[in-house]
Each structure stands twice: as structure tokens, then as C-alpha cells.
Amino acid sequence: MVCYTLSWLNKEKVITKKIEIKNNLRLNVYDSAFEKKYPTDLTVVFIHGAGAGSLLNWEYQLNYFSEKYRTIAYDWRGCGKSDRPKSYTFDEHYQDFLDLMKILKVSDKPILVGHSYGCLIARRYISEHPVGKFVNVSLGLSSIEKGLLKQLLKLPKFLQIPLYRGFYLFRNPFFARRLLASKGTPINLIRQTMKGNKRPPINFFLGLKTFCQDEPLKWIKNYQEKMLIIGGNEDRCFKPGCLEKLKQLIPQASLEIIPNAGHIVPYEAPEYFNQVLENFIERD
Predict the structure, then answer these.
(1) Residues near 78 by Cβ (< 8 Å), separated by ≥ 6?
(2) What is the tens place of the pLDDT at every residue in 85-142?
(3) Which SS3 state, helix, strand or coil, does residue 232 take?
(4) What secondary structure does DSSP assign to 51-82, as a single string?
């Protein structure tokens, strides 16, 4: 394991480790249990989304929740400071998650918090393993199979590459805010987000075609635990309506639409988000 310190934008610091989960693949991991012991086995696992995602997307959650609970986050293969192999299928991302949970000896029934595409990893996990609670952030049902992304994935590779570079590998903060954030999100916050996240390789984006929701209702039928659905009222990627449809299929779920926030709601409204999440964790 190789240890190093990450400097956070809010001037706090956390320790991450590169953990080898298989030959020639190390994932960058934050686990508060590296440095702190907890009186209970309650574990909160944060799973970031695709695009320019990394564990830094949970910047305002990790230090906050690690004060009370074992808190884990990691960079997907190809993201952040994790290694960059050649292949990036959904099955490989999911297997990385399974391997990491085993290596870190995460106890039964963790609380999973997924954002956007990260919810798909969490959803498959809860269809196969017991969890305590599930928090679904900014992703509704069947959202990925519709719209611009679906059409993009159908194009031949030689056309996908320039389009991905133009739209998904953007470095323009004004375009990024228009696509991912609310109108009122400060442009400096967007710049900080972009500065902290490295762009994944192009093969990572080409692998998104494997992120279809296989049997999308299977996990819902099998899931009986408590669930919280969170979204921003100005999310242009996955509008509140698709979250409301998800809520209708899961009677035990709670829905929270956060005002003045877009797709990156944990980053845009951290205090509001943290309070809603903490209340859900503490609720019986």
C-alpha cells in the first residue's frame, strides 16, 4: 500500500491509500478506519459517479461523517488517483467494488450512498447482498437508457471519441455549470470541482455503453430496507420527475428534493445534504 495525503479544498486533509485489488490494478481509497476506531460496525460507503468523478466529489461528506461512523470512498478504475487499465466495463467496475469491500472487511449491511452512475453499482450490490440502508442521489429509473447519452452510445467509435472530448471531457466551467449545476452555483465552486478531478481516459467513456440498467426492477423487488432518494430541483441531467417515479415504486423510500441545487447536489448544498443524510442514518 502506498500512502499519501490529499489536500481538500476546504483546507482539511485526509489520508488515502492505493490498494491493490488485483494484479496491475490499484484503487485510491479513503477509509476513516485507517486512522480511527469506532464503537460500532456501522459503515457508510460513498460511491461517486462517472464522467470526471472521484472520491473528491464527496469532499464535504467524508470528514463530516467520519466523526461518527466508519466512512469509505474510492476512485473507480481510471478515475482520480486510481490506476488506469485498458478496459472499463460495468462488470469490471462492479467487481472492483466487490473486491474492495472484501479487502476492507466491510461488515454486513453497510449503508451505501451512490451518486448518479454510482447508484447503478449500489443497486446491483443490494440486489445480491444485504445492506442496512441505501441512499440514491441524482438518478431515477431508466434515465441512462434515454436521451442524448443513448444516442451517443449508438454511434461508431470514430464519432464517439470527438463527441466525448467535446462534451464530457470539458474544461470550461461555464459549460460545466450549465450541464451539471444550478444557475446559482458560484462559478468558483465549479472551477474547484474541475481542478480537483482528473479527466478519465477516453476508453473509460467508451465503456459507459455497458452501463445499461440490466433488469432495472429486479433490485427494487428484492429490496425491502429503508431508502432515501435525493436530488436537486435544478438537475438538468436527471430531473426531479424521474426521482418521483422511482419513489412511487418503493413505498418505504423517502424523497428529498433540495432547492437551489443541480446534479452535483452533495457539492452544491453540502450542509443541507449532510443534514438530510445524517437524519436518515440515525432514523430507526
Answers:
(1) 84, 85, 88, 200, 201, 203, 204
(2) 999 999 999 999 999 999 999 988 999 999 999 999 999 999 889 899 999 999 987 5
(3) strand
(4) TT--GGGGHHHHHHHTTTSEEEEEPPTTSTTS
The residues, ordered by sequence, that sit 6+ positions from 27 with a Cβ below 8 Å of its Cβ are 18, 19, 21, 74, 75, 76, 77, 82, 83, 96, 100
> What does residue 248 show for φ and ψ, rounded to 5 degrees?
-65, -25
For residues 181 and 262, the answer to whether their CB atoms sit within 8 Å is yes
Residue pointed to by grid coordinates 485510491: 28
Pairing type for strands 43-47 and 226-232 reads unpaired
Reported pTM: 0.89
How many Cβ atoms from other residues are within 10 Å of residue 152's Cβ? 17
> Exposed, middle or buried by CB within 10 Å (0-12, 13-18, 19+), for 94?
middle
Q: What are the structural domains of the chain? A: 2-282 (3.40.50.1820)
136 CB neighbour count, 10 Å cutoff: 26
Q: Over 60: is that where the pLDDT of 143 sits?
A: no
